[in-house]
Amino acid sequence: MIDYELQKILEKISVPSVYKDLGKEYYLDPIRKKLILKTPEETVRQKIIQYLLINKKVPENMIQVEMLLSKYQIKSKRRADIIVERLIESKKEISVLAVIECKAPDIMLGDSALDQISDYAAKLNAEYVWVTNGINSIAARYDFDKNMYVDLKELPEYKEMLNGLGDIINTAKPKKRFKFEELIKNQDYYCEDYTFSIDTPKGLRPFLTNFFECLLDTAHKMPERQYKHFKLLKDYGIRYLSCGTASGGSYDGDYRSFLIEYKNNTMFVNLSFFNYGTHTILTVSSDRGGTIPHNALQYNINYIIPVANEYRFPHNGRIAIGKKGSGKAQELKELIAKKAPELLENGKIYIGTLHNNNLLYLDQPEMIKFVERILTYALIRDEYRDIKLKE
User: Fold this and answer.
1) Nearest Cα to 262, choosing from 241, 282, 287, 294?
2) Pairing assessment for the beta strands 310-315 and 18-21 based on DSSP bridges
3) Where are the beta strands (DSSP E) in 245-303?
4) Vertex 262, ends 264 and 274: CA angle to 5°?
5) Beta-bridge partner residues of 162
6) Is the pLDDT of residue 1 over 60?
7) Which has fewest Cβ within 10 Å: 168, 291, 330, 366?
8) pLDDT of 247 over the 80 cut
9) Residues 350-360: pLDDT tens digits?
10) What long-range pairs does 68-73 form, CB within 8 A, spacing at least 24?
């Protein structure tokens, strides 16, 4: 597929110096440390090398270019375009992390290119593959559970690859939203697909269906601006994530993701609903470059207080601190009082209120305010965890 984001980045990337010899032009390759004939394919390769170094933060000593497969104990005279390596500390040995194939811009990324790189990846046990001509791009990660490569939105950064991360492309066609008047008769829809627990109170189901489909509705975006406690850099739409829990489990599925800046750090915060078994939870997770996404808040929807078409979201402040066990709700409230006192009502944590009298959209004032408050609460919860873990 056409990768417009990659195109913009590559346009700004400078290729190495060009030298002439006997009427021909050569690049001084920074990895191979030698002059390489300038061709359209080589120009793409040189830009991709710089892209890996600068944008994907791959260490220079972990990049191999035009490397013989025989270096990795494979009986073959063939060469791989670019190989990204990793050091396995426990074994003190180098292994292949990613295989990258570069083509000239006028070469289509057909089945032959995919077959070639897939063959290389299989022989080298590479977890990631990427083929690009600088215009089109196909990236994939090996899913050990499914025993197959799954398509990614882009090649992740080096630290993310070391942790087996990457945003999976969800190829499923999004379901059309229910109309507001259809919510009641379809209130069991997300119980049947196991997003909501079957034990979810029927009085909450129409509202939760409205809320969940609001998160999945990418036609409406949360305004990208400076909020009270964080800056929303981009409403990133839907990402398929596997978010870890304090107990060692994970919640895998579609999350509405927001790229934010908080305390001079850039990170994703993500919202979704999941079946906890005995009840439904609204989760807020966060992830930074090179880290596995983790749940900052698992909100039991049974805490919601419905009054007519109004739904209030209080919270008791219960919080887990990894392997250290549980934190103290009173200490968390004291931190909230310092950082975001608007989240407290009469000394109790209050996330916000939503109404179920029309379809909810992420660009509505009420929903904007609610998302701002729940993300802020999740960020402060993580801040509290960091404080306790350092003690």
Assistant:
1) 287
2) unpaired
3) 250-262, 265-275, 280-287, 294-300
4) 145
5) none
6) no
7) 330
8) no
9) 999 999 999 99
10) 69/120, 69/123, 69/124, 72/96, 72/123, 72/124
